[in-house]
Amino acid sequence: MNTGLKTTFLIIGYLIITISAFMIIPHIVEVTIGDGSQHFLVTAILSAFIGTLIVLISRTEDKTLNVREAFLMTNLAWFSISFFGALPLYFSSLDLTFTDAFFESVSGITTTGSTILPTVELASKGTLIWRSLLQWLGGIGIIVMAITILPLLNIGGMQLFRTEGMEVEKVVPKTTEIALSISKIYIYITLACFFSYSVAGMNTFDAINHALTTVSTGGYSTYTESIGYFNSTAIEVVAIVFIISGSIPFLAYIKFGRGDWLTFFKDKQISGFFLILLISILIIFIHSVMNINENPLYALRDAAFNVTSIMTGTGYTTQNYSAWGNFALFYFLFLMFIGGCSASTTCGIKVFRFQILISFIDRQIKQMFYPHGIFPVKYNKQNINDKFLTSVLAFVCLYIFVFFILTVLLSLTGLDVITAVSAAATSISNVGPGLGPMIGPEGNFFTLTDTAKWLLSLGMLLGRLELLTVLVLFLPAFWRG
Q1: Is residue 249 part of a domain?
Q2: Which residue, 59, 143, 455, 456, has fewest beta-carbon neighbours within 10 Å?
Q3: What is the pLDDT of residues 320-362, one digit of tens each?
Q4: Are residues 316 and 403 in the same domain?
Q5: What is the pTM of this model?
Q6: How far is residue 433's CA from residue 442's CA, in Å, rounded to a whole number?
Q7: Which of 338, 370, 402 marks a domain boundary?
């Protein structure tokens, strides 16, 4: 085994050990306020043993990775965590099949929030906290990956956010350094969210769980009715504030901490995110007032919360928006694709790619009238070359293509059109609930076939890893390189 592969499996081993250590938390919850079961302890010991074995076999002093090994490491890392994260769910009292346990774990770690639990309240306290922890850990994971690895692999324009001085060979030490900085910020925001929820009226257990899944824009709740269970304006305001906190690029927080006080105002992506969010809230608000005859104050509250939740891929719900009419359904489907900002906990196509596409279209229109003119495309004062534009265009086209293929495959499992389309969109965009009575705000994914659940699990991983990171593994040239 060469040093690159050893480093790859060494990292995987450490990640498995880390996930096993976090299993102790739900074990403590189980023996204190849960049902006293020991399955978290057993799976923690098993996972730690396997992780340690991998580390011992893969020990190496030369911790370098080439591009191919970085791709492989990223995929194995997310799959391994999803697999070992599923074990406590599989051995729990919920009597889940491994397909269901793996689906729930993937949905957690990718911060999607789709669930196969028909009645969330029936899960033990330890299981509920484990689902929340998976989303919280997934939130940190995607931020670190988006800042350190994806820019180096030139995935869909992510090279725009390459960290200064970062090279593929330095990915391991640099990742450790950045992960520590992000973890501090992430923990501070989570703690602030917890205290805010407590002040707003949640009990301690609910506040902890929802803080973990709000900042990570994950959307798992301790109740089947999600945030709607509380029916509290204060709680919904807290959720909106901290969902947005998790949707902003964490690079901006790092820059702000280093003295760049205006970074949140100078970043084009952040301003674009807020512009789309506010316009969307206004559109849904007007639609609700004019077509549903809802009280304007309630309409504004429902529009603000559900638009924020859907666009950022959080997936919390307060209302059955499937009953808001066809326009609202199609608009929410559109918002699922947009997503939030890069280097945040959100997924989707991302705001910056839409902004670059608009700039590209603007340039093409100008060149129609002025064929000999030179119209450079810039983003945050950086010049965007044609190679970069091609990368963004290819990503968006691939995103739509994969969405179409996934929709067709889901239709073949027997799903109706609305369910298949929204399930494909919600999985690849890592949103959570879909549309319609089966998987909408008042439904869940339990009744889907095992084939559909495996397809959606793949869709969630594809969306979380920016598509190309996974699909490149299926190219023969990748393994020959």
Answers
A1: no
A2: 59
A3: 888 888 899 899 999 999 998 988 899 889 998 998 889 888 8
A4: no
A5: 0.92
A6: 9
A7: 338
